[in-house]
Write a structure and sequence with these properties.
The chain is 28% helix and 21% strand. The protein contains 4 helices and 8 strands, in the order ββββαββαβαβα. α2 crosses α3.
């Protein structure tokens, strides 16, 4: 894979070419284009994506309590698909019973799963946050490196555009970080088993 190119057009979002993908770096508030699917950072019990309001249950209380008691955690590194518009791909990268709640291997596996789902569903556009940085403390630069390696491993054929969703104040540094990461080979190619402290 050749080096990525960074192109900043006046009044537009930073763009980086990662292999066949056009990666556009933008905040959630200013979407660069419509997407067919949105990736969300999630935990093993899908608590992080739950609605913040408490609503009365539709089922009898005993049924709700039974379901909670019998609930099994989702395997970290998995991707859960929610059929809505746009499609939601829940990347399970946290286990809230652990400290830290995430592992790089889970993030890498979830990224691989997200890209696999995108190809199987023939998606052409996708919004992805830097997994591990939304609800975790993975360094942003390392999260970008994991995304770059996932794209390299998957070699997407259908997926054309990836909106990298980042906080507004990090737009420039994220775009530059992707470009520098592509040119540099000094970071480990594979995720670490235990995150640095």
């Amino acid at each position: 894979m050749g080096p990525s190119t960074l192109r900043l057009i006046q009044g537009s979002h930073p763009e980086v070419k990662l292999g066949p993908l056009k990666v556009v770096v933008a905040s959630r508030e200013l979407p660069p284009f419509a997407v067919q699917a949105v990736v969300e950072e999630e935990d093993t019990y899908l608590v992080l994506s739950a609605a913040p309001q408490v609503r009365p249950p539709r089922q009898p209380l005993i049924q709700v309590l039974t379901e909670v008691h019998e609930a099994e955690p989702i395997v970290p590194g998995s991707v859960v698909v929610r059929h809505r518009q746009p499609l939601a791909l829940l990347a399970v990268v946290h286990d809230l019973a652990r400290d830290p709640t995430w592992k790089e291997t889970w993030i890498a596996e979830a990224l691989d799963g997200v890209l696999r789902e995108a190809e199987q569903r023939r998606l052409r556009s996708l919004a992805v946050p830097v997994l591990g940085t939304v609800h975790g403390r993975l360094p942003l630069s390392r999260g970008l490196e994991l995304i770059r390696h996932a794209v390299r491993r998957s070699a997407p054929e259908c997926l054309e555009r990836l909106w990298l969703v980042v906080p507004e104040h990090t737009l420039g540094s994220v775009a530059s970080g992707l470009r520098l990461a592509e040119a540099s080979e000094d970071l480990p190619a594979e995720p670490l088993e235990h995150p640095p402290r």
